[in-house]
Amino acid sequence: MIKVDIQRTEQGKVKAFTLSGHANFAKRGQDIVCAGVSAVSFGAINSIIALTKVTPRIKQGENGGYLHCEIPMIEDQTVEEKVQLLLEGMIVSLQTIEKEYGKYIQITEK
């Protein structure tokens, strides 16, 4: 199972997220749950970098199955709002996957 942990500030803003585990929906290379989660999460990170010029701190496992992304402090409120919108969009997409494939992905928010 893929576990997604969303960490929020006291104000409710996303400050970090961690993905860990494997979906095991299908064999490697054919796992649509894993592919979907990877596409959504990496797409969000790439969008943040390309569209806002903010570079999150990222840690990845060598063999896959682990991704941690931490958002740095952002001084410009407009840029921060854009980053948060992209992250909230990622969460909505992951929740959509969870609704359909809840046996293979679990999202928690702190």
From TrEMBL:
The protein here is known as: Ribosomal processing cysteine protease Prp
- InterPro entries membership: Peptidase_Prp, Peptidase_Prp_sf
What's a single GO MF annotation on this record?
A: cysteine-type peptidase activity
List keywords of the entry alphabetically: Hydrolase, Protease, Ribosome biogenesis, Thiol protease
Q: Which residues form a coiled coil?
A: none
A GO BP entry: proteolysis
Mind telling me which Gene3D superfamilies this protein's record contains?
A: Cysteine protease Prp
Q: Could you say which protein family the record assigns here?
A: Belongs to the Prp family.
